[in-house]
Amino acid sequence: QVHVVESGGGLVQAGGSLRLSCATSGRTFINYAMGWFRQAPGKERELVAAISSGGDTYYAASVKGRFTISRDNVKNTVYLQMNSLKPEDTAVYYCATGQQPFGDARRGRYTYWGQGTQVTVSS
To answer: With contact defined as beta carbons under 8 Å apart, do 68 and 81 qualify?
Structure first.
């Protein structure tokens, strides 16, 4: 059984930083792409950042240059470092694992989702 657990959300002022963590278990972590998604109230869920099994990264235009995704294949954990946060970054952030081994991080499907962690950026 695959488990995905996010942590690290919270309340921060605009311009501040947060680091989200996503720990997984139950599958060979190193073989799968990992993605961070977010969903703000009244908006569709969007892919924020993703990292392939080989370490290639993708960022949405709205976060490029401010967010950094990384993975630790020993700890089976993926991170999202968020700097220069803006009020529009406020959302529930979800972590998910790729559906297929060695799949495309940006265009591939994601399965096994975490419960989400709230990020709130005050102005």
So the answer is: yes
**What DSSP character marks residue 118?**
E
* Residue 55: count of CB within 10 angstroms of its CB: 11
Residue 60 pLDDT class (50, 70, 90 cuts): very high
Beta strands in the chain (DSSP E): 3-7, 10-13, 18-25, 34-39, 46-51, 57-59, 67-72, 77-82, 91-98, 110-113, 117-122
Helices (H), 17-65: none
Residues 16-59 pLDDT 10s: 999 999 999 998 899 999 999 999 999 999 999 999 999 999 99
Cα separation, 111 vs 94, in Å, equals 12
Provide the token pair at 5.
């657990």
Percent pLDDT > 90 in the chain is: 92
**Residues constituting the chain:** 123
